[in-house]
Amino acid sequence: MERVHPTQPRRVKVYTLEGDKWIDKGTGYCTGELTGGPNFVVRDEDDSTEILLRASIEGSIQYQRQQDTLIVWTDSEGNDYALSFQEPEGCLLLCKFLVSIQHTIEPNISLVAVVSNGEDGEITEVIAGPVPEPCMPQDDNLPEVLDLLNQGSKSPKFRETLLHYIKHKDYLKKLLETFHRNEESHNLDNLHYLCDIVKTLIFYNDPAILETFLDGDAIVDVLGTLEYDPEFPKMKTNNREYLARKIRFREVVPVVNEEVKELMKKTFRLQFLKDVVLARLLDDATFNCISNQIRVNEERILKFITTDRHFLSDLFGLFNEVEIVDEQLMAKRREAIRSLHQFVLVAKKLQPFPRTRFFKSLIEKGLFKAVQFALKAEHQENSRILATEVMVTIIEHDVFLFRKSSESPSKSGFRSRDAYDKALIDILTDILIKEPNIGLKTQAFEALKVILDPSNISGVTESLCSSPATPSSDSDLNSSSESFLESFYKNCARRLFEPLIKLRKEDTIKRGEYVTYSALCELTSFIAREHDRYYSRSFIIDNRLLEGVASLMGSKHAYQLRISALRCLKIIILLDDDSLTHYIVENDILGEFVLLLMETNKCNNLINSVCLNLLEILIQNDNLFNFQVLRDYLVRSYGTLLDTNFLGKELVRSVHAHGKDATIKGDATSKDMSPISDEEDGSDLVKFGTREDEDADESADVSSLQPPVELGEAGDPNTSNILESVKTEYSINQAKRNLHVVDDEQAQEQLEPERKKKVVEAGLRLQTGIGSA
């Protein structure tokens, strides 16, 4: 029981009402005391022995708290008193003392708060007061029962008493018996009262009351009372019919724990109550109360699933290979996929650690088998959708949870991390390329981006390679990250990008494949930008990926694809990569871009804006060598066409002006040509044999690689010779850097075997590490 303690003194003025005037009786310190019974005692502030007021707290006195500093009351003899506190804290302290007295010693006193509500005057709110006994519902007292429940909703004492009635005096049973009688007699007025009574009890937001309502025998009748909503007197819902006819509790595998089985049923009923029956009526407090109860139940269910020895094993055992697969087994497998999907959606609400533990249990017990079954079910689109969402949810939570699970033996059938990686990426690749459902393609694409993101690779690598006792070094992390990239480009990349690799200009793309090719364009730019260029650049060049991207800009394709391809090429160009730039030039990758620019030259649309943006990028970056090469290539090959566009014309002028400046500088420097020493330009001596050094060079100033030659006019036959000299000079410089030499003749000698093919190709292969010395 609550204990009452005397209060600390608080400074206060004492007033008494004489006639119609409040008379000041002095200033002192007020305390709540228990000597001789509970009372207020005010002692003079100058002489503590003088008592200004001693007022007993007894009987049925009603105390009013006005504003924040006043307590006003009329005693049992009819005298009116008021205490005006110096501080609101003092008033609050004495009000708490009154509440404690009401709860323990004098249950018939009351404390109300008088609050101003602006224009309409004042409202009174009961803080504490006598608690009436709940009355048992009968046919003739339902209005009184409803009024009593509304009045007692804010009283903890009444709620406690009501809960005692519900648990020990069959209050709910009496209520439901009254419902049956009135439904049989078609007494709509009483049925409306009963509906309001049940709603009021639910809005008490007491888990114990909700638990009683959700009992297997009571829930149907509780839902029945809620069918007769007084706000819609001429309409009636069919809650009971829906619950009885359309809802079946099916066990894909037996749940041996009866408590958990009943908990599953109660959780569904709570969900049905929240989302269907009371969806229109719920306030925030009730919604949160029911949602919290659902969350607690779901956590207990998932804990059972994770810890039970047989449940997950039996569930995934349905997907083991058998000689005869009948329709009954197929139906059970589809039900298992639905169950897994529900479990994963529930797990998304958990905290990260228990969520990880649950997902890991699914993977170790054989999740892959279930997913592979669903994706192979050609005529079961719903199963494919659910399985894909399961995979994407786990990937978004922890991208390499599958790899972590491969640390220990499992029933999944994979022997190594690489096997997990390949299986996971292959599944998502199949969805992206073969799945007709556009939504699934999009989900698979997003999941692939998460998997291939280097930041995710590094984060998982660190968690896999380190422990509190032995933190992993940077070299360990880099090694594991490179191992993943090497495995991806060796085993998965070609299969993923195969549609783009095999695409030719004359091919026609179906509408359902737009998402696939747009995603592959974005993935191409993604790996080029984010992955170690040692891997991504070689893959893009060796598989002629950019030719497939360029094919998508053809006039026969939809604007959606053409924009995706153009954006991809723009990102590739912005990388300012030597090898990719010369690959673009050698294979005329930007030819389709120029044709697309001409096609949309007089249009004011998105695709023309993207074209103009690329031209502007080329114009603005005229100080970078790779951009100079691209500008020269465009002007040489398509100068006449570019002259028809205002930005194209500016590009042509810029290239010609830059070429003349280069000629002047070349004439000035050619008079005194001498070998470059280590002291004069150490940047040319940087070793590029490793990828780390190569990355460092990419951010270096490459303007020194510009050859001292003059560019001819567009269409000038000498232009091709000039451009070839640019490429030759560029290749020699690349060879010097890669072979760590400073002499032009030595570079020429080293390049001679490769020059038999092409000088540019030699520089390209040396840059990518293929055939390097």
UniProtKB/TrEMBL annotation:
Residue span of region Disordered: 666-685, 691-720
Keywords, in A-Z order: Nucleus
A biological process from GO: DNA damage response
InterPro entries to which the protein is assigned, alphabetical: ARM-like (IPR011989), ARM-type_fold (IPR016024), EVH1_PP4R3 (IPR055236), P4R3-like_central_dom (IPR006887), PH-like_dom_sf (IPR011993), PP4R3-like (IPR051137)
Principal location listed in the UniProt entry: nucleus
Residue span(s) of domain PP4R3 EVH1-like: 10-103
Keyword Coiled coil (UniProt): no
Compartment annotation: Nucleus
GO cellular component, one term: protein phosphatase 4 complex
Pfam families for this protein: EVH1_PP4R3 (PF22972), PP4R3 (PF04802)
GO MF term set: protein phosphatase activator activity
Domain Serine/threonine-protein phosphatase 4 regulatory subunit 3-like central: 144-642
Name under which the protein is recorded: DEKNAAC104628
Organism listed in the record: Brettanomyces naardenensis
Lineage of source species: Eukaryota, Fungi, Dikarya, Ascomycota, Saccharomycotina
